[in-house]
């Protein structure tokens, strides 16, 4: 017999824990794209991380600066046709949960949006239809040209539908035009972004009040689908003794008159009631005609719903704010306003809004001498002309896609008060639902397509890729010029150099940005660079060479690699 060879002793294979074992781990890396909190929290559905990363990764993907800008702008306007506008007025909820805040400061997404929006206007970039969509026959009618109505019109026009927008005033834009002072949102910026939508073939009929200039029955016969985007232009008064008469306006009425170019005589001393953006805008508008302005708010600064930076700017302009007070009566001498009587308040238990309810303090009333009063406490739609289309109460009721009933959709402040970015998103979702209904398509999912990346997966301490960098801050005109040049824009935005540096601050949470750490730290050589890299696509994985050591997952700073 021949001699038997002694079997070689097997070397232990590495496991996920690094201990010796007779078999390698069965875990293998997978590239799993996840949602970043910025886009996840954007009401208009903007792909925030994606458009920013096109610019941040332009050198890795061999794009020129101009081409990167163009692609980023094109991706942004797929969901939001108003980047310049929203870059000025949106309170940017996208920044609230930005993972960068745990390192130094959130990425200045809103400033980035304004820059790329303004760049698009400077370049004269047009909005475009969707490739492959032919001209449709179904006529679409939109009542109201605010952000919801124009967003709806845009999304259907780019899909080939003939769309007509009816606007009762002589200026399109809704509350974007009539409710925001020009020092915050210049009229020409809004006009240019609206013009691009009209240039897609949208028929905009100004000075056309549905129910007055054209009947509701006629408009129903004319259009297959109607979208109600009437907005909430009708302000509410306080319902206190003495408020009926001259020198009292609602916040929306006052701002409408100011933006219409009227010379509104508010006198020397003005009281503004409320704590929201309309109250702040009205107060600052009154300061621009030389009045001394006092805002009266029944809660504390912490509960004020207005944008914090706007509150700070109002204080810089000399607006006084008295907290924990509520008006209970006005004193008059005929048509002349003498004073507002206020009641001191204290905060009790939370109400339906989640904020603590103001409770009157007995025996604490006092008077504030004033010449006029602006009530900016709330607003609602005016349904009077729209017989048969409006709700029984103040607000329309619609499903989650904006459908009110057969052939009727709605969005924005017709449903309830909300942000302009919410209105843009609601208009888009309603348009997608209409397109699916008319073409017999499956309704698009309302759930985000990707799961949110776990913030614990973001490796803040990987300094070679996530080093500390200061946040880009917007420039402003000198505060001494704010009142002397009342209509000139205060916020000057950021420079191109700041813009490029700020895009590089984005962590690209949940999506590969080509940092190379998986490739560098993989001992078996599983990762191979792709020939034509692009955002989120830099490496392929050879699973047959992997021993399941988990080093790639441990080293991935953005949470893109999972071991499954």
Blueprint (SSEs and pairs):
Blueprint: E1 13-14, E2 20-21, E3 29-31, H1 37-40, H2 48-56, H3 65-76, H4 83-89, H5 109-123, E4 140-143, H6 147-157, E5 163-166, H7 175-178, H8 187-198, E6 203-205, H9 216-222, E7 225-228, E8 234-235, E9 248-250, H10 251-259, E10 269-273, H11 277-287, E11 292-297, H12 308-316, E12 320-323, E13 325-333, E14 336-350, E15 356-360, E16 366-369, E17 372-375, E18 379-380, E19 403-405, E20 408-410, H13 420-439, E21 475-476, E22 491-493, H14 496-503, H15 517-521, E23 527-534, E24 537-541, H16 551-555, E25 561-563
Parallel strand pairs: 4-5, 4-7, 5-6, 7-20, 9-17, 10-11, 10-17, 11-12
Antiparallel strand pairs: 1-2, 3-25, 8-18, 13-14, 14-15, 14-16, 19-20, 21-22, 23-24
Helix pairs in contact: 2-3, 3-5, 4-5, 6-13, 10-11
The CATH homology group name of the largest domain = FAD/NAD(P)-binding domain
Please mark out the parts with pLDDT under 50 across 5 or more consecutive residues, or reply none. 1-22
Proportion in helices: 25-40%
- Mind telling me the CATH class of the largest domain? Alpha Beta
How large, in whole angstroms, is the Cα Rg? 28 Å
Counting H and I runs of at least 4 residues, what is the number of helices? 16
């Amino acid at each position: 017999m021949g001699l038997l060879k002694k079997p070689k002793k097997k070397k232990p294979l590495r496991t996920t824990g690094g201990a010796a074992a007779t078999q390698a781990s069965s875990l293998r890396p997978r590239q799993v794209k996840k949602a970043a909190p910025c886009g996840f929290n954007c009401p208009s559905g903007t792909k925030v991380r994606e458009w920013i990363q096109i610019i941040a990764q332009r050198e890795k993907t061999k794009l020129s600066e101009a081409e990167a800008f163009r692609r980023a702008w094109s991706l942004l306007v797929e969901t939001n046709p108003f980047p310049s506008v929203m870059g000025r007025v949106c309170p940017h909820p996208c920044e609230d949960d930005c993972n960068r805040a745990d390192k130094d400061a959130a990425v200045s997404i809103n400033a980035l949006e304004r820059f790329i929006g303004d760049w698009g206007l400077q370049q004269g970039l047009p909005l475009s239809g969707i490739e492959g969509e032919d001209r449709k026959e179904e006529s679409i009618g939109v009542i109201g040209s605010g952000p919801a109505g124009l967003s709806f019109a845009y999304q259907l026009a780019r899909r080939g539908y003939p769309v007509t927008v009816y606007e009762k005033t002589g200026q399109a834009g809704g509350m974007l035009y009539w409710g925001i002072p020009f020092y915050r949102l210049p009229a020409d910026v809004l006009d240019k972004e609206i013009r691009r939508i009209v240039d897609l073939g949208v028929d905009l009929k100004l000075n056309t009040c549905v129910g007055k200039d054209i009947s509701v029955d006629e408009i129903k016969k004319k259009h297959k689908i109607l979208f109600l985007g009437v907005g909430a232009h009708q302000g509410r008064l306080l319902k206190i003794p003495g408020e009926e008469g001259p020198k009292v306006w609602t916040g929306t009425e006052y701002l409408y008159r100011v933006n219409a170019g009227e010379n509104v005589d508010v006198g020397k001393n003005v009281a503004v009631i409320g704590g929201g953006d309309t109250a702040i805008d009205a107060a600052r508008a009154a300061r621009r005609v030389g009045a001394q302005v006092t805002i009266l708010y029944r809660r504390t600064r912490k509960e004020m719903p207005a944008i914090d930076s706007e509150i700070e700017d109002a204080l810089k302009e000399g607006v006084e704010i008295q907290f924990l007070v509520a008006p209970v009566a006005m004193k008059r001498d005929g048509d002349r306003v003498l004073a507002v009587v206020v009641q001191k308040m204290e905060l009790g238990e939370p109400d339906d809004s989640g904020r603590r309810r103001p409770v009157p303090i007995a025996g604490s009333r006092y008077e504030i001498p004033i010449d006029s009063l602006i009530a900016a406490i709330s607003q609602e739609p005016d349904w009077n002309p729209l017989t048969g289309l409006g709700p029984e109460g103040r607000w329309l009721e619609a499903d989650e896609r904006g459908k009110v009933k057969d052939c009727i959709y709605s969005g924005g402040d017709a449903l309830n008060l909300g942000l302009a970015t919410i209105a843009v998103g609601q208009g888009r979702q309603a348009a997608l639902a209409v397109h699916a209904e008319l073409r017999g398509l499956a309704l698009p999912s309302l759930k985000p397509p990707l799961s949110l990346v776990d913030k614990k997966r973001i490796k803040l301490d990987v300094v070679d890729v996530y080093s500390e960098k200061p946040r880009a801050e917007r420039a402003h005109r000198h505060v001494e010029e704010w009142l002397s040049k009342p209509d000139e824009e205060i916020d000057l935005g950021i420079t191109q150099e700041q813009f490029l540096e700020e895009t590089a601050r984005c962590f690209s949470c949940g999506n590969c940005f080509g940092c190379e750490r998986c490739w560098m730290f993989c001992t078996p050589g599983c990762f191979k660079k792709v020939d034509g890299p692009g955002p989120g696509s830099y490496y392929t994985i050879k699973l047959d060479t992997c021993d399941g050591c988990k080093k790639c997952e441990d080293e991935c700073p953005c949470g893109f690699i999972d071991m499954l």
